[in-house]
Amino acid sequence: MSMEWFNRVTGELQDHLKSICEEYDQIGHMNINRGSKHPRIEFFISTEDDDRVYFCTLLFDPYNEEFYLESFDMTLQQPTRIILDDITDVIEAVHESFHEFIDEDSEVFYVDDEEEYEVLDDEITLEEIDVEWETPEVPAYQIEDNLEVTYQFGVDRANGDGVLRRVNRIWTEDGELFEDESTLSFKKEEASTIIAMIASHMDSMTGYEEIINE
User: Fold this and answer.
1) Is the pLDDT of residue 1 over 60?
2) pLDDT value at position 205?
3) Angle, nearest 10°, between helix axes 4-21 and 87-104?
4) Hey, which residues does 79 pair with through a beta bridge?
5) CB 195 within 8 A of CB 186
6) How far apart are CA 168 and CA 151, in angstroms?
7) Which of 58, 68, 150, 204 has the greatest count of CB atoms below 10 A from its CB?
8) What percent helix, strand, coil does the chain show, rounded to 5?
9) How far apart are CA 131 and CA 37, in angstroms?
10) The pLDDT of residue 76 is above 80
11) Distance, CA of 64 to CA of 103 (rounded, Å)
12) How many CB atoms lie within 10 A of CB 182?
């Protein structure tokens, strides 16, 4: 197991991220998470309200020393993985994800009625969250040897933000494990609003059982 390739690509991506986003006068940011079994690099832009809008997540398999993109095919009910063999493939994958994001969510970037673009920042930033986990991973849903969804809560040591970590693990029929991890950061004042919004709309949500039984 080696992280050398991960570290090399991460360094090069920081240099390429500006050119990937500059076509739309946007500044790209990278969030690196080395704490999971498969480390990841999350790419996002910041809105006027300082919210993060993510447009790509790269995962790294340290055992096979390869980057990949992962999604879940709802039709086939199985995960898919796209292997990125070299730095060129990695850069193209991030670039393509950004342009797809722009095409699907272009309203995020328009700032007035004349549809002019706004530069949000002058620098590329590289973030690595240092979280003190207050809870262990708590299972939210589980099908033995098939699917597991867990949550974990912690506090960002740098700014005191609450951090909610979600890990989705899927096992294939061959026993191969796929992991998908995401995090949500929020301030203390936001916590009660998030809890209330979820509690008020749970009846309108679809559960795993309904999807699996379709």
Assistant:
1) no
2) 83
3) 40
4) 72
5) no
6) 9
7) 58
8) 30, 40, 30
9) 16
10) no
11) 33
12) 14
Task: Look at residue 203 and give its three-state secondary structure.
Answer: helix
Measured in degrees and rounded to the nearest 5, phi and psi for residue 13 equal: -65, -35
What is residue 146's three-state secondary structure? coil
Distance CA 58, CA 16 (A): 15
Side-chain-side CA neighbours of residue 199 (13 Å) = 6
Number of residues assigned to the chain: 214
Give ∠ CA 44-50-53 in degrees, rounded to 5: 25
Structure pTM? Answer: 0.48
With H, G, I as helix, E, B as strand and everything else as coil, classify residue 113: coil
Tell me the CA distances in angstroms from 192 to 102, 127, 131, one per residue in order: 32, 27, 21
Mean pLDDT value of segment 3-25: 75
Q: What is the pLDDT of residues 156-180, one digit of tens each?
A: 988 899 999 888 888 877 777 888 8
Tokens of 194: 């998030």
pLDDT at 96: 85
